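User: Quick sanity check before I run a bigger batch. Here is a single chain. Can you write out its predicted 3D structure?
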Amino acid sequence: MPKPSTKAATPEVKGGSGQSVTERELVVLNARGLHARPAAAWVRCARGYTSTVEILKDGQSFSAQSIFGVLSANLNEGATFILRAEGVDSEAAVAALAELLVEFHKQDA
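Assistant: Done. Predicted structure follows.
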């Protein structure tokens, strides 16, 4: 089964504020995309970290910690986006959210 979280990864670097920044390119593989139920789970997970987490897609930035932001990103099946986190737990936040995409795909199968 393909993993939706391993297209590209950027190691942690220091952001302008001195915080760690982690980015990873992700692909949505589940057939219905990130609709309301999985989007709510995604937001709950993202809010569990102190880092600021955002979705970068089509030249726009959306908050991964807001249901409105996640739904506005239109993360349909096949959508590719960059997940970016900045803060002390940025690496853990990106890893957990990438794994959650894998779980959504497994549940959809």
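Strands lie at 8-14, 20-27, 52-57, 60-63, 80-86.

User: Great, the batch can go ahead then.
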